[in-house]
Amino acid sequence: MKTVKADILAFGAHADDIEIGMGGTAAKYAAVGKTVVFCDLTKAELSSNGTVTSRAAEARQAAEILGVQERVTLDLPDRGLFLTAEAVSKVAEVIRRYQPTVVFAPYEQDRHPDHGACARLVKEAFFSAGIRKYETSGKEEAHKAKQLYFYMINGFHRPDFCVDIGEVITRKQEGLSAYRSQFELGEGSVDTPLTSGYVETVIARDRMMGKEVGRMFAEGFLTSAPLLLEWDLIGD
């Protein structure tokens, strides 16, 4: 079966990372017909709550809610995202397979080491995927995406640009709510930073980011290179 060509390819270390940082942006672009693909580097097998099976089911549900066309999970180890040639090759192969226009990854400055490690892996793979003689285990040809952007998971950083998500903020909340094992205390679960009002904190950050740009809600991003503006310098 032929793989779809992605407008947006977003990477996360664990299922729910992408939804936290850019679930609204994904939903917004999916709603206007853009092809959005998520790739989780690990199965989050070391999560304090939930299981690999339950996390996978929640990830599928969240992707469906947001309108994500495909979601893939690599077999890289949770808490073992090291900058190795094998790991870079696996991520580069995903980039080549989906031939995205733009790529997203977590911002490197984050309290969780796996998020920073994911950022470093994707940066290396983003570059390597465009080298014609760079080899991966797949047969896909080299592909150079236009831009690599970084979304925030934990923390609040000054963004290089923002995306207005006011019209899809409810969709983002619904996508996050799919991760009941992570954001809700249930039978057999333990209290973690994620179960203590974490989703409310994320939405509050989106509201604060929106105020920075004169909107109700926005998601902020950082860039790996300067943005080129053509005709949108002064807006609509």
TrEMBL record:
Its cofactor is Zn(2+). GO terms for molecular function: deacetylase activity; hydrolase activity, acting on carbon-nitrogen (but not peptide) bonds, in linear amides. InterPro entries: Bacillithiol_biosynth_BshB1, GlcNAc_PI_deacetylase-related, LmbE-like_dom_sf. It catalyses: (S)-malyl N-acetyl-alpha-D-glucosaminide + H2O = (S)-malyl alpha-D-glucosaminide + acetate. GO terms for biological process: bacillithiol biosynthetic process. Pfam families: PIG-L. NCBIfam families: thiol_BshB1 (TIGR04001). This is Lmbe-related protein.
